[in-house]
Amino acid sequence: MSCDSCPRVVNGWFRGCLTAATTLAAMPVIAMILSVPYRGLEENLGGIITLVLFVLPLILILVCLLSGMPAALVILFGEALRIRSVLFYVPAGAAIGAFVWRITVGANHPLGLHFVLAGALAGIAYWFAAGKYAGEEGQPER
Predict the structure, then answer these.
(1) Buried b vs exposed e over 98-129: b needs ≥16 C-beta within 10 Å?
(2) Which of 141, 136, 113 is nearest to 9 (CA)?
(3) Whole-number pLDDT of residue 4
């Protein structure tokens, strides 16, 4: 899922959203897979397929909507200062994950760490796709 005609930062942001959505959707899928020995494959297969085909796209849409503005601020800051370190994008992604958890749920709960982890992994995905090339747009070739 890449967009060759999209700007580098948009491509990186979407890859980060996809990573965060997959991380958030993985928890119930893993729980269902682990319960197969107790409930049976036939009973869990419908739930797993429903989660992958219907819930994952909904989570992706919500992640894109809720993380758009905070991620845009981080991306603009990183591009303006040409920050290319993964040590900037991982904590920024984790902070965005914590922010999204706080504005949606608003409570301290251990499940919030799952959002922080999803944000940190999204920061790594953004860095791989676009962050390590920050500030190179419009620069002359060396």
Answers:
(1) bbbbeeeeeeeeeebebbbbbbbbbbbbbbeb
(2) 136
(3) 60
Residue the block writes with tokens 């749920």: 105
Average pLDDT over the chain, rounded to an integer: 85
Q: Are 124 and 86 in contact (CB under 8 A)?
A: yes
Beta-carbon count within 10 A of 51 CB: 18
pLDDT of residue 5: 59
Alpha carbons within 13 angstroms on the beta-carbon side of residue 36 total 10
Place of tokens 């819930």: 55
Long-range contacts of 78-84 (CB under 8 A, 24+ apart): 78/131, 78/134, 79/9, 79/134, 79/135, 79/137, 80/135, 81/135, 82/134, 82/135, 83/131, 83/134, 83/135, 84/131, 84/132, 84/133, 84/134, 84/135
Rounded-to-integer distance, Cα 102 and Cα 87, Å:
23
86 closest CA partner among 127, 122, 118: 127
